[in-house]
Design a protein that fits this description.
The protein is 29% helix and 21% strand. The protein is α/β, with parallel strands linked by helices and 304 residues long.
């Protein structure tokens, strides 16, 4: 079950990042996609054959209709509540090599809450919960704990300091984040999550540099090589969410964490060869075809 994190991404393909200072800049056709992290994890898990529920707030607006249309028929049991604040949006600038910068709005007010009667029926049917770091999702932790369900979350580019992320970091069983926020401090941040929280594994994605895995049995983070993309890299939007869905697919199948991370790498690489956000998630057939292919070379060290 996925909680929170639906929205619409407006993808703008720019000639370079950062964008040159100019009053105007000609770009390729601008596209809109159902995006954001919860949508990506839900679609990725469903494409891999996992029974997937998804609860969130969504606006009664054209952007909300786009999200509903994308999720319809995907296998995701999407049950949104109407938010008077509208559907979350982001503008993602994408360079020719697939790198991106996301400008996302934070329109949800801090007093937004999801009524328990809306999410509890879905929680009672779940065997694992993935919480997006939307503010309202933090208030589900007590009910999740009462049901004895394991939790995962994605902190994205957390710097290890911002307070908003700490409850998610320290109350989740699996913690995903990217190396972008903490930089060379990422190893220390991963160790803090293990030390201060309840996580059995912390996974830091590093884009083309692969990923890093840390468990209580590891002295230092293990490097997970990047998988070879099945085609030219054109857009990294949604690659981190795809990684998460691939990892969860392996974890719920009972695989050890290293193998879960390898599946995550395969799903992340697959996402980078499709334009847009969550437009072509890896499915079980593609996973089987990609399994056993060689991994790309990458640095085998993680910043201390």
């Amino acid at each position: 079950m996925v909680v929170g994190g639906s929205g619409v991404d407006t993808v703008v393909r720019v000639p370079t990042l950062p964008v040159p200072a100019a009053d105007s800049l000609p770009v390729a056709p601008i596209r809109e996609y159902a995006g954001h992290t919860g949508t990506g994890v839900a679609l990725g898990c469903a494409a891999l054959g996992l029974r997937t529920g998804f609860v969130d707030f969504l606006g009664d607006d054209p952007q909300g209709a786009l999200v509903r249309e994308r999720l319809a028929g995907s296998g995701v049991d999407f049950r949104p509540l109407i938010s008077p604040h509208g559907t979350r949006r982001a503008v993602n600038l994408v360079a020719p090599d697939g790198r991106r910068t996301s400008l996302h709005d934070a329109r949800d007010p801090l007093d937004l809450r999801m009524p328990p009667e809306h999410y509890l029926p879905a929680l009672r049917r779940a065997r694992h919960v993935h919480l997006s770091i939307t503010h309202f999702a933090r208030f589900l932790y007590d009910d999740i704990a009462a049901l004895g369900l394991p939790v995962s979350t994605d902190l994205h580019d957390w710097d290890g300091l911002t307070c908003h992320h700490k409850e998610f970091a320290f109350r989740s069983d699996l913690v995903f984040l990217s190396t972008a926020g903490a930089g060379e401090r990422i190893g220390a941040v991963m160790r803090e999550i293990l030390r201060e929280g309840r996580a059995s594994a912390v996974i830091a994605t590093a884009g083309a540099g692969g990923a890093y895995l840390l468990t209580p049995e590891d002295r230092t983070p293990r490097h997970i090589p990047t998988a070879v993309p099945p085609g030219p890299v054109v857009d990294s939007n949604g690659a981190g969410d795809a990684f998460t869905s691939g990892f969860l697919h392996g974890h719920l199948a009972g695989l050890e964490f290293g193998e879960c991370a390898r599946r995550g790498a395969l799903a992340g690489a697959h996402a980078c060869v499709a334009h847009g956000t969550h437009s072509a998630p890896l499915d079980a057939e593609a996973l089987a075809a990609a399994d056993g292919k060689p991994e790309a070379g990458a640095a085998d060290t993680v910043p201390a």
